[in-house]
Amino acid sequence: MKVFPLLSFALAAAANPLLSTRAAHPKPPTVSLLFSANITIDDPIIIGQTPFGFEVIVQVTGGAFKGPRLAGAHLLPSKLPLFNAAISCGNTLNENVTGNPPTNRATATYVLTTNDGTNIVVSEQAAIPYVEVLFEAGNGKYGYLNNVTAWATGSEENNVISLNFWQLSAPAA
Fold first, then answer.
1. Backbone angles phi and psi of 113, in degrees to 5
2. Are 171 and 29 in contact (CB under 8 A)?
3. Is the pTM here over 0.90, yes or no?
4. What helix, strand, coil percent values describe the chain, rounded to 5?
5. What is the per-residue pLDDT across 50-97, written as a single tens digit (0 to 9) for each?
6. CB-based burial of residue 104 (10 Å sphere; 0-12 exposed, 13-18 middle, 19+ buried)?
7. Beta strand 30-41 with 160-169: parallel, antiparallel or unpaired?
8. Which stretches of 50-151 are DSSP H helices?
9. Which residues contact residue 105 at a Cβ distance below 8 angstroms, ignoring those fewer than 6 apart?
10. Element (H, E) at 5
11. For residue 138, how many other CB atoms are within 10 A of its CB?
């Protein structure tokens, strides 16, 4: 057995807080409310069984959102050609159910339009009910969202998805 690789790892662990005992009790991230949203959806389009699972597409038809730093409405697909809204531009929720027991996975991309007319792209990846959310905004008033990782929780009833979007931030030192 060579001692050098083990010694190298031990020295790296001592210098790296992620590998050392100092990180034995990690602090959880802080969580703050970004906004709450009610997203209206159309009836699902059933694609059916594919090599990637049972596919369902749900089109976002509208909704509204409000939080401490932003508020507005969802961009309605009627403002886009239907083909683009459903396929290219994303204004959809794509769900697939696979495995035994089934795993419900979903991806969604849609646009939020704030009350001042700014468009913000929202991308979601989910292992239902857990939703990771990323944003793309211009560098103006909402540019801070480009550096936000969010977590959404919520429910669906009568073609309305109600979500609370929570910003995850590094723990206080």
1. -115, 115
2. yes
3. no
4. 20, 55, 30
5. 777 777 777 888 889 999 999 998 765 433 322 222 222 234 455 555
6. middle
7. antiparallel
8. 82-83
9. 53, 95, 96, 97, 98, 126, 127, 128
10. helix 3-15
11. 12
